[in-house]
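Protocol step 4 of 5: obtain the predicted structure for the target chain.
Materials: sequence only (see below). No template structures provided, no constraints applied. The aim of this step is simply to have a reference model before the mutagenesis design in step 5. Sequence pasted as it appears in the construct record:
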Amino acid sequence: MSSEYQKALGRKIAQHRKRRGLSQREFANLVGRSEAWVSQVERGVRKIDRMSVLETLAEVLEVPVSDLAAEAPIVASAAEEPPGGSRLRLVLSGAHALNAMLRTEQPHVEIEELRQRVEQAWALTHESRYLDLTELLEGLVPALEAAARSVPNGERRELFRLLNATYQACSSALSKLGEFEAAWIAADRSITAAERAEDPLLMAAGEFRLCLTFLGAGHFDQVEATASTACEALSALVDQGPPEAISLFGALTLQRAVAAARRNEATGAYRNIAHARSIAERLGEERNDYNTEFGSTNVVLHEVAAAVDLGDAGVALRAAEGVDTSGLSAERQGRFLIDVARAHLQRRNADAAVAALERAESITPEQVRGHRLVRQALGDLLTIQDPPGPALEGLARRAAVL
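Step 4 output (structure tokens):
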């Protein structure tokens, strides 16, 4: 979409919004976007290249979609399906549990070997190496489903714990790949496995994965419902002081913060960030219970993400200054830099945004090239930097935006 088309569309959206008597904030709430997003669209800074988005805008503005589409030739995304997505869906689609229950020959089970494979799965997840993770899970999921149903009852809890962790890894990867329905299934299976292991903290960890899935899918009210009820359930354990429970409570609170930010509720977002910070200070150390990576550093990273979603680029960039992310996983480091790039983009500092994305790509190339936020940012950068410089053009081609 050319800049003239974008500006014409933006003017038309602003005209219909004012006709309905809506402020930018009110309109943003109705379309499920931030006030900053609406402002950028109306100024012609942000492009709309999805018919589904245009249809939502037209519905709220009470105009035929054709009235807006005349100003917005929608271009289909050139991006291919993220690597590993379809194969991970097939992992979830297999009737592994049924096969395990009906097989007559029981497999030999080496619990320690399975535990090592689960640890490897999480290492690959944290490194955003989705193709390698997919290849591992294609064999690990059926092996664990079979093992959990073939050992004596006294040994089953440990295997269901491992199955819980495996489905959590699968859910995490699917969410990053934008496969939210499949990620939801994987998160739900992780919770079921935790219940069979009779481990409430593992169940809470599964609820955390469910929040990440809802967040990616844009179901922000479901994030709040899931996280708040999980926090309420954990509160008695938190009062007793076990660090694992406190860490999970903090991680769920951060999900509430991001969900509030994406609903454009700044007060709720920053209140939850402050609450999470106090929880991290109570812990007094960086932890990674149930692969949540909760601690003071991750609180700052979520503050940056929430501020960007709220359009508070200055707050985001100030919070990001001097943050040492070296103790976090590659996935978290890369995601942090994506949010930094988005903050620079809001300031229309294209060079700084491209530099941040290049650093992110050097850490987690698969995550950067397949992430929808990166593709959206690259589309905006191509509008600002026209013609694109060599660095931006290279990034855009590797992410299949060009």
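Step 4 remarks: The chain has a mean pLDDT of 89. The radius of gyration is 22 Å.
Proceed to step 5.
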